[in-house]
Amino acid sequence: MQRAASFIVASFTVMRPIATKTTAIFVAMTFGLIASLSSANASLIRDTELEVGLEEIISPLAKAAGFGTNEIKVRVVIAPEYNAFVAGGRTVYVNSGLILKAKSPDEVIGVLAHELGHIVAGHVPRRGEAVADAKAASALAALAAIALAAGTGSSDAAVGVMIGGQDRAQRNLLASVRRDESVADELGLKILDDAGFSALGLRDMMQRMASQRALPESRQSSYYSTHPGAETRLTTYQDHINQSAASDNVLPIRTNRLMARMAAKMRAWTENPQDVLRFQEPDPVNTIYGHAIASYRRGDLGMALTHIDQLLAGAPDDAFFHEFRGDILLSMGRASDAASAYETAVSARPDSPQILLNLGRALIATNQKNRLDRAIEVIEIAATFEPEWAFVRRQLAIAYGRSGHISYADMSLADEALLVGDNARAVHLSKRVLARTDLDDIVRNRANDILFRYGTKDP
Question: How much is the pTM?
Answer without folding.
Answer: 0.80
